[in-house]
Amino acid sequence: xxxxxxxxxxxxxxxxxxxxxxxxxxxxxxxxxxxxxxxxxxxxxxxxxxxxxxxxxxxxxxxxxxxxxxxxxxxxxxxxxxxxxxxxxxxxxxxxxxxxxxxxxxxxxxxxxxxxxxxxxxxxxxxxxxxxxxxxxxxxxxxxxxxxxxxxxxxxxxxxxxxxxxxxxxxxxxxxxxxxxxxxxxxxxxxxxxxxxxxxxxxxxxxxxxxxxxxxxxxxxxxxxxxxxxxxxxxxxxxxxxxxxxxxxxxxxxxxxxxxxxxxxxxxxxxxxxxxxxxxxxxxxxxxxxxxxxxxxxxxxxxxxxxxxxxxxxxxxxxxxxxxxxxxxxxxxxxxxxxxxxxxxxxxxxxxxxxxxxxxxxxxxxxxxxxxxxxxxxxxxxxxxxxxxxxxxxxxxxxxxxxxxxxxxxxxxxxxxxxxxxxxxxxxxxxxxxxxxxxxxxxxxxxxxxxxxxxxxxxxxxxxxxxxxxxxxxxxxxxxxxxxxxxxxxxxxxxxxxxxxxxxxxxxxxxxxxxxxxxxxxxxxxxxxxxxxxxxxxxxxxxxxxxxxxxxxxxxxxxxxxxxxxxxxxxxxxxxxxxxxxxxxxxxxxxxxxxxxxxxxxxxxxxxxxxxxxxxxxxxxxxxxxxxxxxxxxxxxxxxxxxxxxxxxxxxxxxxxxxxxxxxxxxxxxxxxxxxxxxxxxxxxxxxxxxxxxxxxxxxxxxxxxxxxxxxxxxxxxxxxxxxxxxxxxxxxxxxxxxxxxxxxxxxxxxxxxxxxxxxxxxxxxxxxxxxxxxxxxxxxxxxxxxxxxxxxxxxxxxxxxxxxxxxxxxxxxxxxxxxxxxxxxxxxxxxxxxxxxxxxxxxxxxxxxxxxxxxxxxxxxxxxxxxxxxxxxxxxxxxxxxxxxxxxxxxxxxxxxxxxxxxxxxxxxxxxxxxxxxxxxxxxxxxxxxxxxxxxxxxxxxxxxxxxxxxxxxxxxxxxxxxxxxxxxxxxxxxxxxxxxxxxxxxxxxxxxx
Length: 995
Ligand code: GAL
What we know:
The model is unreliable at 1-30 (pLDDT under 50). The chain folds into four domains: 8-359, TIM Barrel; 383-580, beta-galactosidase, domain 2 (3-layer Sandwich), CATH 2.102.20; 654-662 and 843-993, Sandwich (Jelly Rolls); 666-827, Jelly Rolls. The strands form 13 sheets. Strands 4-5-6-7-8-9-10-11 form an eight-stranded parallel beta barrel. Helix 2 runs parallel beside helix 3 (112-121), helix 4 (158-175) packs parallel to helix 5 and helix 8 packs parallel to helix 9. By secondary structure, the protein is mainly beta. The chain is built from twelve helices and 57 strands. The longest helix has 18 residues, at 158-175. The structure holds beta-D-galactopyranose (GAL).
């Protein structure tokens, strides 16, 4: 069907009122004349099936969670339970290709699995596949081999085009069958935070356009292409490379978590920017701050969580809604782990991000705050249609109370209220003028005042429709509403101690109040007037209307799942889709009604009182399959006790474990044979950054070693008095150098938090004594711990910055005759295609495969006979040692018990540690920088019901040695969970990988 005909039909249907929600007449409805579009939008919102949708999204990176499908499903279920209807997903090109010409989308690299799970759960997906993604990941998602492609990345230069084209073509093919409505994918992003062609940046828009053309040419014709603009300056709204749907990103509190109570102001320019950039197109945010990353030497993720806590979510996200943002994705909603070598230099292993769902998948107070907002937006279909009528302090009697008033074509009013200065942390009491069907009213009318705490935002509503009822106004916030047994049930809340007022017209004079009496109601002049200060739960019933008033702390513990099977799409709203209200549990995943029974599934963290407000046809309830003994609560809910059944597990004690240990630096021993190593024979490089000395180019990437630790060995004969080394490894890197087996010294660059921003390279002169230099072959061995390849934010090929020895000079007359370099086993042809190219580095124990399950450590020393063979005893000199142990876990099936490895940090001694669990690298630790000392070992990678093999290495950068003062396994939560076991991921062991 051609667009004009379809458009005419749509408009005709709208005029006939055939759709549940009014598509505004004359609105574009479709974008760019694309007649095959299944996902459309106008000035207010996205449409799916001609229904408006507030896209409430959260960012998740499957590749930061290699535990696989059941793990992803758990995260998606948690998002869905909190009202998220969309998951935004970056994909990482680099993890799918070890070598140019190869592509691998199996396992945690899968697109299909992500879309299948989302489809099954009824959650939508925004795909963001780059090619460049940034994301604080190694090379911003570029493959390591791209550092060797002599073309400016992120431009239309041929070498780069040839590199990304097969990848983006594959992505398109994966997405094509999953485009809405056949699948969950509603949008695809091209590139990331990109800028168009300029006089100093040629070929960018051309490249952007080519990515978009590639998507379209491979069948992505039903969904809009988007882009995220960090400066909100309208890039790619028009011109070459223009996208269908302009989206922006913003991180208003920044990324420095060291002052976690210091906030920036909310962005008051959003409304004006929308007007300026694209007033005819809905306002959409591809990324809005959900937390913060944290650098080496940073404050740690608990501080980031504090900076970006539930109050932040309350004030800043509501400011977005006030600016008519109708598409918002919180970056990150679940952060995950920079396992292997996924990190780029400014971040460490954990990517917890202080997100609403923490790295161990536990839920936070911010998650609950977001749940209240998502429920409200889902239930308030008038909201996305509303336009701003005023945005200033004029509606309040207090100058510091800022209100954005919006009104919908149906006459609903929304007042988004906050303090006008985020530095205010105390309560402000105020009156507010609101526009009601009875004219302008100053509320509260019946005594008391409204209150706003410091750093609180509230949404008052007027003429608010729920089912066949309307609130004339409410100064309590709306959590959600639903229809149960033909009764419209609305849930209101406010902080305990805050006065609320709500008025609802009714023809019935009899109001039944149950539960807390801190709220009262009286019928007057055809309305019910509700006043008081919420405390616990009050329910008020009259006619076919029920009002539930919670104090906010109580509201945060309630859930509103839609009944499974009643509506498959995530965007249907009550009364189309029946739902129930459930109070108490830590998590409610699912509610299904079968006949007179209600089956609930969910998770608990303590013994819990369950309250259910559901149809009177419900006579029995099960929780995770077990029948419950029901009673009635004072406020009329069905009530039961949910016993918490998981005992605190016994976690093996690593201090008493038997450790096997072995030296992991044979490279400094006399006679070490490096003849099979790659000879660094290049004498020139096409990279922007040239060598700073020496005949040969020693950059590890030039020889195919892109990830993890690398080693360079320079051979010379004859006299030498020292060596000058320029070593570059990324911020917070480290290296050590030896002449033969004599330790020369180490340097760890500068902490990036140091004054001046730190350095990612150092130049040192190491002097030899005459006695150190032997007749015949001498070897300088340089071991480098790189912190990853840089990102490429500025389109300057920064990700090609050399890693390893950047330049060298042998002092005293001779020169090196040959340099040998080494990195991860096999370089770009590494054997472990399951765990993928970013898992391993090039230390001896890694090349040997000692980190792999089943490694025969038969000739290693044992702590059973040598008490020094333990990481808590460590090394007595500079060097590298690997320690292995095994432990068993036997956790009950109905439990979610996240385990982490906990270190005691000793900043005074300089050492670096790599952690491998069952062959997977799940931690990199630097005693100097920290801050991470707790390393989650996620279920799936960790076997919760069997044996596990742990390897930790200690590289002492100090001449006097180093040890890990304490090392233990801890459980970071103890959840009685309904989810099936995550199950251990099938991954190969030593025999398969080092045959
Ligand atoms: C954004 C970028 C993301 C990520 C984020 C910070 O600007 O698009 O990829 O880097 O910043 O975590």
